[in-house]
């Protein structure tokens, strides 16, 4: 049986930190589904469709990646596509506490689904989509934080909205 994992997130926008986790996860699993989820606690800068397009653009050279979106519980999506694992990136100890709670609940809801944590590369340990958007909003330099396609999309979004 092929191994199939889900890498969920809001990816608003996708950063080099996300790509670090995605590319490393793609080396471990036969298929890796990048799933854009809506976080109701956040105001997204990009629509789900825009985020999917950006992710597809920056992962086009990784053959075993599929990009999708889902509304609802991640475990239901994982069950639908017959995934046997979730991949989550960890930047710092503070991430672990939150992720442990989510993993424990997912285990109650779908016992067969395993969660794998990948520590991000140290150079991305400070990086979040929120920080990238904040820097971009004020015209800061973000080329070391996101791929060129994402930088261009952010500049268009924030320059035209002023």
TrEMBL record:
Domain Cytidyltransferase-like: 6-134
Gene Ontology MF terms: ATP binding; pantetheine-phosphate adenylyltransferase activity
Any one annotated GO CC term: cytoplasm
Recorded coiled-coil stretches: none
Keywords from the UniProt entry: ATP-binding, Coenzyme A biosynthesis, Cytoplasm, Magnesium, Nucleotide-binding, Nucleotidyltransferase, Transferase
GO biological process: coenzyme A biosynthetic process
Enzyme superclass (EC): transferase
Positions marked as site (Transition state stabilizer): 18
Protein residues bound to substrate: 10, 42, 74, 88
EC numbers, comma separated: 2.7.7.3
Gene3D superfamilies in the record: HUPs
CDD domains (UniProt xref): PPAT
Annotated localization: Cytoplasm
Alphabetized InterPro entries for the sequence: Cyt_trans-like, PPAT, Rossmann-like_a/b/a_fold
Signal peptide: none
Pathway field: Cofactor biosynthesis; coenzyme A biosynthesis; CoA from (R)-pantothenate: step 4/5
Cofactor(s) listed: Mg(2+)
Amino acids binding ATP: 10-11, 18, 89-91, 99, 124-130
Catalytic activity: (R)-4'-phosphopantetheine + ATP + H(+) = 3'-dephospho-CoA + diphosphate
HAMAP family per record: PPAT_bact
Quaternary structure (record): Homohexamer.
General function of this protein: Reversibly transfers an adenylyl group from ATP to 4'-phosphopantetheine, yielding dephospho-CoA (dPCoA) and pyrophosphate.
Protein name as it appears in the record: Phosphopantetheine adenylyltransferase
Lineage, opening ranks: Bacteria, Bacillati, Bacillota, Bacilli, Bacillales
